[in-house]
Write a structure and sequence with these properties.
The protein is α+β, with helices and mostly antiparallel strands and 275 residues long. It contains nine helices and eleven strands. The protein is globular.
């Protein structure tokens, strides 16, 4: 396998951010939209890499800080933060909003995918954004699983939309994807796993077909509507914005399943690299 970056287990989150998302922040400031998501089996460090801790911030808080450091005069920033759990949407900035009120549709003016009734909050500092995200994280769905005592059982998508004084609009999307666990003993975990697998399978199918298109395969249908995850990320995955993917694996797989999942993640990452 060959990738743009390979990180050792002792790599700091600061270095991970610098080598992955920093260039995306620069692009968004310049007026391009950009998407980054973390992909891998549960328990391999996706949420830690994206969120980090108060003493060792991850990709998300570092990106937020650099957005406001680089923001041009007269620009405004709005924040949205949502969760996809069992194919239901939840507004993490307004948890009281009913899931069925959050409708995904195409904006007739811009052609972008938008979510009706999703709360957008205008923010003027990194500290305010981080405060909203911490509040939103408290509403996220987490459960103990076979491999992780506090596992994210949902996909979370944070979006910062920048509107410059010259009318240019760009969006930075940072996504923490849930990891799947097959064959869970608990019925609720099995249901979660089925929905997670469905969305990750749809994502994997689109990545594979995008890689095929890059290799000359033509006229392939892209099933963006097969899951809400891929529908929301459609704009970022369809070639009209920059994309960076952080794939996480077990450092030393202790079981055959861990080994197989690590290989599957590496294959997914390889397909992404071929796009």
């Amino acid at each position: 396998f060959e990738f743009d970056q390979v990180f050792e287990p002792n790599t700091t989150t600061a270095q991970v951010y610098q080598d992955t998302a920093r260039s995306l922040v620069d692009a968004v400031i310049d007026g391009y939209s950009a998407t980054m998501f973390a992909y891998g089996m549960t328990g391999t460090g996706k949420t830690h890499s994206m969120q980090g801790t108060s003493k060792d911030p991850g990709v998300v808080p570092r990106a937020i800080a650099d957005v406001f450091t680089s923001l041009p005069a007269g620009a405004t920033v709005s924040l949205s933060y949502l969760e996809i759990y069992n194919e239901h949407l939840k507004d993490l900035l307004a948890p009281e909003t009913p899931s069925d009120a959050l409708k995904i549709h195409d904006d007739p003016n811009t052609g972008e995918v938008v979510i009706r009734n999703l709360r957008g909050i205008e923010v003027n500092s990194a500290s305010k954004v981080n405060a909203f995200i911490l509040r939103g994280n408290e509403a996220r769905k987490t459960e103990g699983t076979e491999h992780n005592s506090v596992s994210s059982r949902s996909h979370a998508i944070m979006q910062l939309t920048i509107k410059r004084s010259d009318g240019v609009r760009s969006t930075l999307s940072l996504c923490d994807l849930a990891g799947s666990e097959r064959g869970a003993a608990d019925e609720a975990r099995r249901k979660e796993g089925a929905y997670i697998n469905k969305s990750l399978l749809a994502l994997g199918t689109i990545i594979a077909r995008l890689a095929g298109s890059s290799s000359g395969v033509k006229d392939q249908h892209m099933p963006y509507r097969d899951s809400k995850l891929t529908r929301i990320l459609q704009h970022g995955l369809s070639g009209r914005s920059l994309v960076n993917v952080l794939c996480t694996i077990h450092e030393k797989p202790t079981t055959q399943r861990h080994f197989n999942e690590s290989v599957n993640t590496l294959r997914f990452a390889s397909r992404v690299k071929n796009i």
